[in-house]
Amino acid sequence: DAGITQSPRHKVTETGTPVTLRCHQTENHRYMYWYRQDPGHGLRLIHYSYGVKDTDKGEVSDGYSVSRSKTEDFLLTLESATSSQTSVYFCAISESAGFSYEQYFGPGTRLTVT
Amino acid sequence: DQQVKQNSPSLSVQEGRISILNCDYTNSMFDYFLWYKKYPAEGPTFLISISSIKDKNEDGRFTVFLNKSAKHLSLHIVPSQPGDSAVYFCAASGGSNYKLTFGKGTLLTVNP
To answer: In which residue ranges of chain A is pLDDT below 50?
Structure first.
């Protein structure tokens, strides 16, 4: 299994509070991704990173920001959490050496915004 | 606009039989396709992939078929086992970036 951890694994927070989720990898992979999974929507990309300090938006980036100051850590921040951000959040990594697009996922963080 | 479609939300098969999961895509730029399996309360795990230069890729009980003209791929599991019960996601990538576009998933239930 790829060395990916996510913290916290579960979090309950109130509307309007800031929340930061952390993804940590030990694989030294270049690419890191944040997804959310919701019933009826599958996995949707929030933001991704293609290197330290290099990030870009995914399809559902509104209300989220990210930072990557080290290769191994990718942070997802909800500046002011809303109930629509209640979801399961997955981090993924990939090396993308050659013609390969496999991504490897962390165990997920279940976030509830009340 | 959904670029990767899994039109069957669920599928139920008997143990030992073949499971066939389908996926359609609309973006002609997609050139690499993947299947992931997901158990409850776990992250998705990579299962098998295929590039557009092939029409079939096999790994043990799992085979993925790609029909580029129809923009359709399928995952065959033979024989199906109860441990295969999970949600299966189809994903696609293309162009110069390394992003994946996922379908909504199909819940496979293999009955003993």
So the answer is: none
